[in-house]
Amino acid sequence: MAELSTIARPYAEALFATAKGNQDALASWSGLVNELAEVASLDDVREALTDPRLSNDQRIELFTGLIKSPLSDAARNFIELLVKNGRILLLPQIAQQFDLLKNQFEGTALAEITSAFELSDSQVQELLTGLEKKFGLKLKPSVTVDSALIGGVRVIVGDQVLDTSVQAQLARMRDTLAA
């Protein structure tokens, strides 16, 4: 996967450089790139776009026809560039890189919070307040429930993981006793 990220990064950086001049443009490009990534990640779409019987123009028309949002000339040019360079299937990685650049520019980050039990809105806000102090960033929460954690939470912000789950504590105890 690191190879795909490396290939996707220049496209995301170029797109971000185009969009970052205007906050409205940045938000609209972010939404559009994520929509393009969703469409490109569908199995049927991936299969159709790799069909050797299709020309690049047919691939462009096929792909743009699947997009619900209206496409500007710049967005259409971006899709054409990706198709002609054989990179249209990298859209999920491009969207991920674009979101990272956008978050970095805005001083925010995604906090992936996994809890053993359902968290109330007030619990999420309390947790976010502490995490924002720790990381010095404005965090956007993405909360999921995983009963396998037994208790506690696991938080992933960028490449940092804070795991206070019972499952992680039991694993640490097991490793300590085995050593």
From TrEMBL:
Compartment(s) of residence: Cell membrane; Membrane
An example Gene Ontology CC term for this record: proton-transporting ATP synthase complex
Main localisation: membrane
Keyword Transmembrane: no
One Pfam family here: OSCP
Annotated InterPro entries: ATP_synth_OSCP/delta_N_sf, ATPase_OSCP/dsu
Membership in a protein family: Belongs to the ATPase delta chain family.
Function: This protein is part of the stalk that links CF(0) to CF(1). It either transmits conformational changes from CF(0) to CF(1) or is implicated in proton conduction.
Official protein name in the record: ATP synthase subunit delta
Annotated organism of origin: Pusillimonas minor
Gene name in the database record: atpH
